[in-house]
């Protein structure tokens, strides 16, 4: 893989000159603002085929990027090797649009995407780790 996870993580959430912004295609409106969630390409097509609703998806050689509403990282810890990018500034080289949404929304719903990323990576969703302590068993 050309880009290592360490390279992506070292860039953090700050924009660097090596990052470019994914643009929402003309004709689609991103009224909620937008961020991007990236996964290695080896997982990308499996995710794309299993999600019930998918918005704009971009890809380059190594990564696939889903457009999600801005703030989709609140209260969620996206598992490695996924990469959450605020403002959709991604460390990609010549990403191209590989999936156009069926409706006028550029967004992939973040919760189903998050759950699928967790399933593919074998990581329990973050809220599953924090059970209700002291709650009576049913």
Which tags fit this structure?
alpha+beta; disordered N terminus; 5-stranded antiparallel sheet; 3 helices; two-stranded antiparallel ribbon
Give an account of the 3D structure.
By secondary structure, this protein is of the alpha+beta class. 21% of the residues lie in helices and 20% in strands. It contains 3 helices and 7 strands. The strands form 2 sheets. It has a 5-stranded antiparallel β-sheet with strand order 5-2-4-3-7. The longest helix has 12 residues, at 110-121. It starts with a helix and ends in a 17-residue tail after the last helix.
Quick structural overview:
The chain is an alpha+beta fold.
Topology:
Elements: H1 5-11, E1 20-21, E2 34-40, H2 41-50, E3 57-59, E4 63-69, E5 83-85, E6 89-90, E7 96-99, H3 110-121
Antiparallel strand pairs: 1-6, 2-4, 2-5, 3-4, 3-7
- Order of adjacent strands in the largest pleated sheet: 5-2-4-3-7
Given helix and strand content, the structural type is: alpha+beta
User: What is the end-to-end distance?
Assistant: 47 Å
List low-pLDDT spans: 1-14, 134-138
**What is the 3D shape?**
globular
Strand content: 15-25%
Tally of separate helices:
3
Rg calculated over all Cα atoms: 15 Å
Largest sheet: 5 strands, antiparallel
* SSE arrangement, N to C: HEEHEEEEEH
Mean pLDDT: 83
E-strand count: 7
**Portion in helices:** 10-25%
């Amino acid at each position: 893989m050309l880009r290592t996870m360490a390279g992506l993580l070292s860039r953090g959430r700050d924009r660097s000159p090596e990052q470019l912004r994914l643009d929402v295609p003309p004709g689609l409106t991103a009224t909620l603002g937008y961020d991007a969630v990236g996964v290695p390409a080896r997982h990308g097509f499996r995710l794309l085929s299993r999600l019930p609703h998918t918005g704009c998806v971009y890809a380059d050689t190594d990564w696939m990027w889903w457009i999600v509403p801005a703030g989709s990282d609140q209260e969620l810890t996206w598992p490695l090797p996924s990469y959450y990018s605020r403002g959709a500034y991604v460390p990609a080289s010549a990403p191209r649009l590989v999936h156009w949404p069926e409706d006028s929304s550029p967004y992939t719903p973040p919760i189903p995407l998050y759950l699928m990323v967790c399933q593919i990576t074998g990581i329990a969703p973050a809220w599953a780790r924090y059970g209700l302590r002291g709650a009576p068993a049913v």
